[in-house]
Design goal:
The chain is mostly helical. It folds into two domains: 176 residues, no CATH class; 51 residues, no CATH class. It has 14 helices and no strands.
Length: 242
């Protein structure tokens, strides 16, 4: 950890964490609308936000079900997207060093946003504050807006007629786009889109999402092949010093 002299004020950490929690938490409304529009009941929709609490997996699950996919393929796609949180947990467990009794509770809040806020902090104290404030505000607001979105969808009836069936994918893309900073990340995203949309007419609902995951190893393999010749032709540092 950095020296205390570089620590951010607690108020600044709280402000930043709340900003993330509120901004992302409001998109739970889109999930509530999407889930109710896909045929899930109010209790089912709210249970997903309470127990799963990872937006990408939730949107993937209800999207696959809405498209007619089997519960198995829908759950498989959601599970695959949620696996990344386990890797986040490995890093955060070392950084936060929480008491053993709190770890199962904290694990529920290990998602993209809490990880990003936590890793941005210079000290362990700031990391704990950022994680707690982001997780608590996001969890409460996400579940509240999920409930409101589901109730609103039931009130207006056919969500497709209002174009609200596109709300979920739109929010997910809005959250994803700023994260694609490198050429490799953009290549993975582009190839995943091509695979997903290209296979949508020929594979059962939910399966194209799983196949699209092949974009990551394919893009990394191509990148390694392109960098391989460059590495072999690059001058050796020991030779340059001669």
């Amino acid at each position: 950890m950095s020296a205390e002299g570089t620590a951010k004020p607690d108020s600044a950490v709280v402000r930043d964490a709340l900003g993330v929690g509120v901004a992302v938490g409001l998109s739970g409304f889109a999930f509530g609308v999407t889930s109710a529009g896909s045929g899930l009941g109010l209790l089912q929709t709210c249970a997903l936000s309470l127990l799963v609490f990872t937006g990408a997996s939730q949107f993937a699950l209800v999207g696959a079900l809405a498209a007619g996919g089997s519960p198995f393929t829908a759950a498989a796609g959601a599970f695959f997207l949620g696996v990344r949180n386990a890797f986040y947990g490995l890093r955060l467990s070392q950084l936060l060093a929480l008491p053993r009794v709190l770890r199962p509770l904290a694990a529920q809040w290990v998602i993209d946003e809490t990880t990003a806020v936590t890793l941005a902090q210079p000290t362990r104290r700031a990391a704990r504050i950022g994680f707690t404030v982001t997780g608590l505000s996001l969890y409460l607001l996400w579940n509240l807006t999920t409930l409101l979105g589901a109730l609103g969808a039931q009130a207006i009836g056919d969500t497709d007629a209002w174009g609200l069936d596109a709300a979920g994918p739109a929010v997910f893309l809005a959250l994803l786009a700023p994260m694609l900073k490198t050429r490799t990340e953009r290549a993975v995203a582009g190839l995943a889109v091509v695979l997903g949309l290209g296979l949508l007419p020929v594979l059962p609902a939910g399966v194209p999402v799983l196949v699209a995951a092949l974009a990551a190893p394919v893009a990394l393999f191509v990148q390694s092949r392109r960098l391989g010749p460059a590495r072999r032709t690059a001058p050796d540092a020991t030779e340059e010093g001669r």
